[in-house]
Design brief:
Number of helices: 9
Shape: globular
Number of domains: 1
Number of strands: 12
Helix content: 25-40%
Strand content: 15-25%
Structural class: alpha/beta
Largest sheet: 8 strands, mixed
Distance between the termini: 28 Å
Length: 252
């Protein structure tokens, strides 16, 4: 698969779920976003977050991105929430006309998964994966959708990577009072985003760190508001819209 043809997209859990209400799906937001993605003419690889289906349960049972010994029941319940949301996402995308192929996040930890990704794409299937809980000898840990995005970017080297979030992009301070940034560099300090909330995967600051790592590989990375699906489509098509770009390319 030619990396120039491929776009890697993360559907943020904060867009398709209501994080203030556990297990609360934003049906209209999800379906509108699926419809926008279906209108894109290029090839996609998708990742989605857990939102209110995963984060509240993971937090309750002390699950984090670092391995730790936790109550096994918490792992099962967190994963059950993730699977429930994943099914909703798959059904929404299918209804919109995107036949997806689910790939277990554990496989993404190994570079050999690139074979499955390319084979799915060659069969006109859109690969999709999701944040999950992974067991290890040291304990169980959360692998976030943002971490999966970085791993997939390392394997696939896509020209463009898109993070779909619930605000217009990145801001110099708090999104409620700060200035929207049209572009940031690889060295921009994420601490500038003061006052933002964290979840078990690091919140927006964790996304920015992963995005900068991805951009350093040569991809242009965008943050765009998924509550406005037409903006997502414009970013995918390379058209001007409200967003923030993390540039990974040297421009003349």
């Amino acid at each position: 698969m030619d990396s120039e043809e491929l776009t890697l997209v993360k559907i943020g859990g904060s867009v398709i779920t209501d994080k203030s209400k556990p297990l609360s799906l934003r049906f209209n937001c999800l379906n509108n976003l699926s419809s926008a993605l279906a209108r894109y003419e290029g090839r996609l690889v998708l990742v989605h977050g857990g939102g209110s289906y995963a984060h509240p349960i993971a937090k309750k049972y002390g699950l984090k991105i670092e391995p730790a010994k936790v109550e096994p029941k918490g792992v099962t319940l967190t994963r059950l929430g993730v699977f429930t949301l994943h099914n909703e996402v798959v059904l929404s995308l299918l209804r919109a006309g995107i036949p997806v192929y689910s790939i277990h996040p554990h496989h993404i930890l190994y570079k050999e998964c690139i074979n499955v990704l390319n084979e799915a794409l060659s069969c006109n299937l859109t690969p999709i994966t999701y944040g999950d809980v992974i067991p290890s000898k040291e304990g169980c840990f959360v692998i976030s959708g943002d971490m999966l995005m970085r791993l997939l970017a390392e394997y696939l080297k896509p020209r463009k990577v898109v993070f779909i979030i619930d605000v217009d992009g990145l801001y110099d301070t708090d999104p409620k009072s700060g200035r929207l940034l049209k572009e940031i560099s690889l060295t921009w300090r994420t601490e500038h985003n003061a006052g933002v909330e964290f979840d078990v995967t690091g919140g927006i600051l964790g996304k920015v760190r992963e995005a900068q790592k991805i951009a350093s590989l040569g991809s242009d990375v965008y943050f765009v508001n998924g509550l406005y699906p037409e903006r997502v489509l414009k970013v995918l098509r390379g058209e001007e819209t409200i967003s923030t770009m993390v540039s990974g390319r040297v421009r003349s």
